Amino acid sequence: MTGREVPDEYLEGYARILAEACGTGRRLTRDELESLRTRGEGAAEAGLGLRALVRRHLSVTREHWPTPTSSDTDRVLAVVEQAIDAFAEGHERAQGLAVRQEEGIRREFIDDLLYGRSDLGRLSERAERFGLLLSRAHAVAVAQGGKPVEDTHPATRQVESAVITRFGERRILLTTKDGRLVCIAPGEQDEVLAFFAKQAHAATDGGQVAIGRPHPGAGGVVHSYEEALNALDLAHRLHIEEPVLRAADLLVYPVLTRDRQAMADLVRNTLGPLESARGGAQSLVDTLTAYFDSGCVAAEAARRLSLSVRAFTYRLERIHKLTGANPADSVHRYTLQTAVIGARLLGWPDNEV
Questions:
Q1: Residues 170, 183: contact at Cβ < 8 Å?
Q2: Is the pLDDT of residue 56 over 60?
Q3: N or C: which end of the chain has fewer CB within 10 A?
């Protein structure tokens, strides 16, 4: 835009103001300053760059420069300083308003896109403005750190800069939503989301990133976004500490909890007897969790809980006695492990099920 020719209309009256003010030594009037601001706003709205506009004002100043004396030079420079400052103020004001309007439009689009609240046809048209072709499948990655991030947060700028530098002008949208970093990319470009996950994990000081599965259409973006959010929620409830989660790897958990009542019955019937143990059920549930997470290796599970192998084995025997299910038996093990997963998902025993 700085290379465009500046039309004369944006300098209309400037030469007259320059001549009158320099001739009398007066400062510019309020009306003159406001007219310059108005022309600055108009120039910004027309897409003219400030550098070209200042250069044109200086060119006109040179053409109308009075007889060079020391006092006249001071007068001219004082008038030019006032005039260009007012013109630039109007230009910046219009630019700031345009940026705020663009940010508002972008935020409204992102809200509609991630919540699926708009007409899908109209949403697809708006998406092209922001580089997305919703006729294709897209996948969404969501990064959540210890502290919320917004569009102006340093972590957001850091990740956006890294992704743009690596992948250029691909059809990728980076944004924030509810304090989380969000990346939307074409479904076949998994390398983009994998790179985003690596950068976001580092920028958020070890935050966790979840990647939804690719789905077609505008509704597919919402679906993938919800999958990523659900993966983060599952990780929190199940104490999964992996830095990158993929919804495709966690599909068993939604299946297990699809019938909440059945899962609650399983937890109560299988693990309910543990509540009669001294100190309650939690320590024995933690024992089973460590046992299953360590591949049913008692020595490793004992190490994770900072127990001796003998103390850990005693706990397993106590679980067997109270529930009637033997963690070492392959048939009982599946029932117990499923019940433990259900307990973690439902928040039992802290919450009634």
A1: no
A2: yes
A3: N
pLDDT category at 71 given cuts 50, 70, 90 is low
CA distance 60 to 334: 86
Would the pTM of this model clear 0.70, i.e. be above it?
no
Q: Residue 68 pLDDT > 60, yes or no?
A: no
How far apart (Å, rounded) are the C-alpha atoms in residues 212 and 196?
13
Output the pLDDT for position 69.
54
Contact criterion met (CB below 8 Å) for 192 and 169: no
Q: What percent of the chain has pLDDT over 70?
A: 92
Instruction: Round to whole Å and give the CA distance between 26 and 47.
Output: 33
**Cβ atoms of residues 200 and 156 within 8 Å:** no
> What backbone phi and psi angles, to 5 degrees, belong to 199?
-70, -40
**Residue the block writes with tokens 């972590």:** 155
Helix, coil or strand: residue 34: helix
Residue 345 makes CB contacts below 8 A (sequence gap 6+) with 234, 237, 238, 253, 256, 257, 263
Picking from 173, 194, 57, the residue whose alpha carbon sits closest to that of residue 126 is: 173
Cβ neighbours around 14 below 10 Å, total: 24
Q: Which of 336, 352, 233 is nearest to 287 (CA)?
A: 336
Give yes or no for a contact between 332 and 326, defined as CB atoms under 8 angstroms apart. yes
Identify which of 254, 275, 258, 252 has the alpha carbon closest to the alpha carbon of residue 352: 275
DSSP assignment string, 52-72: HHHHHHHHHHHHT--S--HHH
- Interval 177-196 mean pLDDT: 94
Q: How far apart are CA 180 and CA 185, in angstroms?
A: 16
What's the pLDDT band for 2 if we cut at 50, 70, 90? very low
How confident is the model over 77-122, as pLDDT tens digits? 778 888 888 888 877 777 766 666 666 667 788 888 888 666 666 7
Whole-number Å distance between alpha carbons of 250 and 340: 16
Q: How far apart are CA 156 and CA 150, in angstroms?
A: 7
Whole-angstrom distance between the N-terminal and C-terminal Cα of the chain?
A: 64
Question: What pLDDT shows up at residue 15?
Answer: 84
Is a pLDDT exceeding 90 seen at residue 52?
no
